[in-house]
Design goal:
This protein has one domain: Arp2/3 complex 21 kDa subunit ARPC3 (Orthogonal Bundle), CATH 1.10.1760. It contains 9 helices and no strands. Helix 3 runs antiparallel to helix 6 and helix 6 packs antiparallel against helix 7. The longest helix is centred in the C-terminal third of the chain and has 28 residues.
């Protein structure tokens, strides 16, 4: 890992944090708010690749754990990660890694492939982790936790599509994604 990798990871961690400036949408039937931050996780994985994208999301989770108010609504702290919505946040590094892995292994990145990568990592991985964690922490049946998660799907589908369009355009016009210092594609 070189300085350029660390800089890009920090930059995307900042993007995820900046997306936390948008106020959360609180649902009356769920303790988990709807936020814009998963868009940043999808962009990090899509643009930086598996390791750097996952690393940037891991950096955000670590900063949240130590109290940085990076989450939507100015929230942060270990208590947030231990709350019912913590499973969604804890899944961010794995989600970015999965998205980056899929994008890295695509022969050519198209919007459709990027949407599939974002849906796989940014929706399935995050929701699977979030639902299991929510069910466990709140002592709810899995079906009840899964039903409460359905309200996130329309927004997540929109975020996956937006991230796909943005990342494909950036990857088409940027010399740096997925290359190491010798210019070899990862």
């Amino acid at each position: 890992m070189n300085t350029k990798d660390i800089t890009m990871m920090a930059m995307f961690a900042a993007i995820i944090g900046i997306l936390g400036l948008f106020p959360p949408l609180i649902l009356p039937f769920s303790p988990v708010p709807i936020t814009a931050q998963t868009l940043g996780v999808m962009l990090a994985g899509s643009i930086l690749g598996a390791k750097r994208g996952g690393g940037s999301a891991l950096l955000v989770v670590a900063l949240i754990a130590v109290g940085a108010p990076l989450l939507s609504g100015g929230r942060g702290g270990l208590g947030i990660l231990l709350a019912p919505g913590g499973g969604y946040i804890l899944a961010w590094p794995m989600a970015a890694f999965v998205i980056g892995f899929i994008i890295n292994h695509a022969k050519n990145v198209t919007v459709i492939k990027a949407v599939i990568a974002n849906l796989t990592g940014g929706v399935i991985v995050i929701h699977l982790s979030g639902i299991l964690y929510f069910s466990w922490i709140a002592d709810l049946p899995l079906t009840a936790a899964a039903l409460s998660s359905l309200s996130f799907l329309p927004g997540d589908l929109a975020k996956a599509t937006i991230a796909a369009f943005l990342s494909v355009k950036i990857l088409q016009h940027s010399p740096f994604p997925f290359q190491n210092s010798s210019g070899v594609k990862r």
